Amino acid sequence: MASKLKLFWMLPVSFLLLSNCLHNGANAAPQVPCYFIFGDSLSDNGNNNNLKTLAKVNYLPYGIDFPEGPTGRFSNDRNMQDVIVEYLGFQNYMPPFARAQGRSILKGVNYASGSAGIRDESGKQLGDRIPLNEQLKNHKIIISRIRQILRNDTSTRKLLNQCIYSIQIGSNDYINNYFVPEFYNTSRQYTPEQYAAVLVEQYSHQIKVLYGHGARKFALYGIGLIGCTPYAISVYGTNGSPCVDKLNTNATLFNERLMPLVKELNTNLTDAKFTYLNPSPSPQDVLSFVTNSTCCEVGGGGGELCVRNSKPCSDRSRFVFWDAVHPTDAWNELLAESAYRTNSTSEAHPFNIQTLAKLK
Ligand SMILES: *[C@@H]1O[C@H](CO)[C@@H](O)[C@H](O)[C@H]1NC(C)=O
Ligand SMILES: *[C@@H]1O[C@H](CO)[C@@H](O)[C@H](O)[C@H]1NC(C)=O
Ligand SMILES: *[C@@H]1O[C@H](CO)[C@@H](O)[C@H](O)[C@H]1NC(C)=O
Ligand SMILES: *[C@@H]1O[C@H](CO)[C@@H](O)[C@H](O)[C@H]1NC(C)=O
Ligand SMILES: *[C@@H]1O[C@H](CO)[C@@H](O)[C@H](O)[C@H]1NC(C)=O
Ligand SMILES: *[C@@H]1O[C@H](CO)[C@@H](O)[C@H](O)[C@H]1NC(C)=O
């Protein structure tokens, strides 16, 4: 599994036993029986590898620090969801839907796909992808396989009710749709306010479809600072600001509608729990990172990905950005830690993931 857990297994047995008593060690049961992941390249762990698309990264230097090498994760090592899976106490990462087999699916599956969006067309200028609607259909396929394994509708439903369902999506509806007018009409059809409303309306339906499939614990992520990526800055320029303000302010319009949606869903669907997450490491943490350049040499994919077989920076743990869009393992670790245990209501509301896991 993780580089960390591998190290863990190499320690002497006596220490291992002690560790298991002191910490929630690798042999303890996970805090929820299962974890399902929906989303885009921030969460993808190999679903795009066999698609015809520029948005895939099953080549070095991606995965240079990951025990299995390049897997399709958009990082030098783990993505944020991998780290959360570790925090929840699972012994293995969730298999990508594209390769998920056997009983492993009882613990969860990762459906995320690079360049995918809430809207079906988002990301299409890069090639094939699995939009959220399609990810939901893939989840239905997995549910029927779970039912076959358990041979019992009651226990299938009971299991699905206890899992956490993580969805981090929406960035591509902006950076690979609304803000690419050469390929998409949305910016001519909708004002920024209308577009945020249309997106969140569609998202609300998709969340309810998942609820209809038995999901009762939802971790819903806001869109991060898409205007601060080296890619956005190089394409749009900043006009003297540190970031591309129009991207960040439009993402904020989306987040400002997602937050009240989460509140409404908690009110209306009382047998389910929803939480809004938007982890952001502290300014102190940021200070010790390089924020204004990428670790790898970019130019692959649509111009935002690492060049195949290029040599990345050696001090990867000091960089926020691995390529021109996606964070390093080190930054993902900080984001995951915050999503898992922050008490800040701007980063997790009304629950962090640790609390969401405990709720009955
Ligand atoms: C299904 O599982 C439940 C417990 O979850 C049990 O009470 C029930 O008898 C099982 N049904 C069948 C048909 O095995
Ligand atoms: C965009 O709008 C033009 C004119 O209305 C239309 O011809 C074209 O098919 C649209 N393109 C897309 C991708 O929807
Ligand atoms: C959103 O993007 C548009 C450009 O499409 C820009 O004019 C506007 O200032 C941005 N921000 C908001 C809050 O509308
Ligand atoms: C919640 O219920 C109210 C009242 O029935 C309804 O107007 C609203 O659309 C519902 N919200 C959601 C997100 O389903
Ligand atoms: C990044 O920021 C550092 C510290 O502010 C500065 O010394 C360096 O020149 C910057 N690099 C680039 C590529 O802008
Ligand atoms: C959050 O609050 C809980 C309960 O008050 C406390 O135990 C925990 O240490 C806090 N977490 C952080 C990261 O401050």
How would you describe what is shown here?
The chain is an alpha/beta fold. It has one domain: Rossmann fold, CATH 3.40.50. The protein has 13 helices and nine strands. It has helices at residues 3-10, 13-22, 80-87, 132-150, 153-162, 171-178, 186-189, 192-212, 230-236, 245-268, 283-287, 329-341, 353-358; strands at residues 35-39, 164-168, 217-221, 273-277, 290-294, 298-300, 305-306, 319-321, 348-349. Strands 1-2-3-4-9 form a five-stranded mixed β-sheet. Strands 5-8 form a two-stranded parallel sheet. It has a two-stranded antiparallel ribbon with strand order 6-7. Strand 6 (298-300) and strand 7 form a beta hairpin. It is globular and about 55 Å long. The two termini are 29 Å apart. 45% of the residues are buried. Mean pLDDT is 93; it is low at 1-25. The structure holds 2-acetamido-2-deoxy-beta-D-glucopyranose (6 copies).
CATH architecture: 3-Layer(aba) Sandwich
CATH topology: Rossmann fold
The count of strands amounts to 9
Strand content: 5-15%
What order do the SSEs take from the amino end to the carboxyl end, as H and E? HHEHHHEHHHEHHEHEEEEHEH
Oligomer: single chain
The major β-sheet equals:
5 strands, mixed
User: Whole-Å distance between the termini?
Assistant: 29 Å
* Distinct helical segment count: 13
The kinds of small molecule bound in this structure are:
2-acetamido-2-deoxy-beta-D-glucopyranose
Uncertain spans? 1-25
Shape: globular
CATH class: Alpha Beta
Q: Radius of gyration, Cα only, in angstroms?
A: 20 Å
